[in-house]
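Backbone-to-sequence.
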């Protein structure tokens, strides 16, 4: 990739790929979140909810990137100090809860995958994820960004192939599901808004990536692209899922149900490898945000860098706690019980303040000159 292409990629596409990495995680990649929040609304209602979530994500990413750039915030602490003042500590607490829940979900999903595919004990899948996240998060932003880019190639390719195989294998069942008259009720929009509400935190998690943005135009472009980049796989998954809605609705791994219908063992392995890679990039992104937050405070006080060993130690301590929680509660319970409460907290602490106070401050600020890289 030459310099010009690399600059365009980092400024416009990398934030969206990083945002996708932050939100796709265990519940999304396995289909569990899609089943939880969109399947109850029916085929057309689910599509409406997914569309609403995409629009919310794009709008909030634009505002987040603009506000972060205006305040030169490169981690979530700086961002919320600028937005909430002393109230930033309330977000810190909510974010701590968020990280614990999502990493526990990732661990539970990794355990389910290892058990379903290889018959391994669930702790083996959790351990593999723990080692992988620790290895990548220890080396900081540049390595994390490379992970986002390479996993994205695998992820979009596998989802595209999954759609083709599903349409050729049980496309008639998909068509039958969507042949009913379109009905879009309030539950579709509630599901879409709730799902978007707790996942939009991904825009703050990936603030280290926004250091590549050189202008407000870059921030707007990257933000608008981020929503569709993050949601395209969900649309693919949902459409295929509608063919067997009752069966996948209560499954811990809806993806496994659909893959069994395809009856293609090699693709089954490839898909589960992709899911594990998605867990790896999502977990690494969440942990990297914490490491960057700690690194900023550490460097300010100690006047020396927060090194590889320190990053690895923080990552390992956090993940061990979350994996224990995953083992105790399980994937379905974590998503159904923890995510909705988390969504309401993040909407109150992030979405509403940024869409009101943040928007007013952006409108009143003086012109912000483009940066020179």
């Amino acid at each position: 990739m030459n310099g010009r292409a690399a600059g365009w990629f980092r400024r416009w596409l990398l934030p969206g790929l990083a945002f996708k990495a932050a939100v796709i995680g265990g519940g999304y990649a396995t289909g569990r979140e899609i089943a939880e929040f969109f399947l109850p609304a029916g085929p057309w209602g689910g599509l409406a909810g997914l569309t609403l979530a995409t629009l919310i994500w794009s709008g909030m990413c634009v505002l987040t990137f603009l506000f972060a750039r205006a305040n030169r915030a490169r981690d979530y602490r700086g961002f919320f100090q600028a937005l909430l003042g002393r109230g930033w500590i309330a977000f810190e607490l909510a974010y701590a809860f968020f990280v614990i829940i999502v990493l526990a979900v990732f661990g539970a999903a990794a355990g389910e995958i290892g058990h379903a595919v290889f018959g391994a004990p669930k702790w083996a899948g959790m351990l593999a994820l723990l080692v992988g996240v620790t290895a990548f998060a220890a080396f900081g932003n540049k390595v994390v960004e490379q992970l986002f880019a390479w996993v994205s190639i695998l992820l979009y390719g596998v989802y595209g192939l999954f759609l083709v195989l599903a349409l050729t294998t049980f496309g008639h069942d998909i068509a039958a599901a969507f042949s009913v008259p379109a009905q879009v009720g309030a539950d579709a929009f509630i599901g879409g808004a709730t799902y978007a509400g707790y996942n939009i935190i991904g825009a703050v998690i990936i603030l280290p990536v926004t250091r590549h943005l050189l202008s407000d135009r870059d921030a707007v472009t990257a933000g608008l692209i981020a929503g569709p980049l993050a949601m395209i796989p969900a649309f693919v998954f949902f459409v295929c899922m509608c063919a067997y809605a009752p069966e996948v609705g209560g499954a811990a791994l809806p993806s496994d149900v659909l893959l069994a219908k395809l009856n293609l063992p090699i693709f089954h392995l490839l898909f589960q490898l992709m899911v594990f890679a998605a867990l790896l990039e999502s977990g690494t992104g969440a942990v990297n945000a914490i490491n960057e937050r700690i690194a900023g405070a550490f460097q300010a006080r100690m006047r020396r860098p927060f090194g590889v060993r320190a990053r690895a130690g923080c990552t390992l301590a956090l993940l061990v706690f979350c994996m224990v929680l995953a083992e105790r509660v399980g994937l379905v319970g974590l998503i159904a019980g923890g995510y909705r409460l988390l969504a309401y907290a993040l909407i109150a602490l992030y979405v509403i303040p940024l869409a009101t106070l943040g928007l007013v401050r952006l409108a009143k600020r003086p012109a912000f000159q483009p940066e020179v890289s």
